[in-house]
Amino acid sequence: MARAARPRRTSILSIRFFLVHEEFDAAGFGDERYAGLRERPPDGCLPVDRGSLALECERPGRTLLDAVAGTVAQVRREHGLVMNSLGIEKPQEWLGDDRDGYAAQIAAHLLLAGVHRARLLGYGRKDLVRLLDATGIE
After folding, report:
1. pTM higher than 0.90, yes or no?
2. Number of C-alpha atoms within 13 angstroms, CB side, residue 132?
3. What's the rounded Cα separation, in Å, for the pair 3 and 63?
């Protein structure tokens, strides 16, 4: 049985979330490349140390994805960093770089599961594409 689409919000909400810049080779919160972002974070965001640079944010948006996408795009545009996590621990730990191996299967799984769950929450293609575009993926 198909689930009815939720009506699109038109009002702007104040949405709280974390954004984290996670890299295996990162030097942590004090890394020199984070200096500008620590000094000039986006409005509504506070830099915090979560083992790496994180932003604790309360930002405007019609949805969580809208607020996250706008913040990811602003950080990428102004500081050249792609915030690549919301700090969710261990969705499924994996390492690897084989584009057709287990690591790729996990990446595909996470994308598909994310799309599925986003759809259940009423997000559409435009919401997800906006978030992907905000990361600068080619």
Report:
1. no
2. 11
3. 19
pLDDT tens profile 22-62: 776 667 899 998 999 999 999 999 999 998 899 999 999 98
112: phi then psi, degrees, rounded to nearest 5: -65, -40
Angle in degrees, CA 71, 72, 75, rounded to 5 = 85
| DSSP secondary structure of 84-99 | -B-----SS------T
Q: Which residues contact 130 (CB under 8 A, 6 or more apart)?
A: 65, 66, 69
- Both tokens of residue 119? 């759809």
What does the alpha-carbon distance between residue 88 and residue 75 come to, in Å, rounded to a whole number?
A: 20
At position 114, the amino acid (one-letter code) is G
Of 65 and 37, more confident: 37
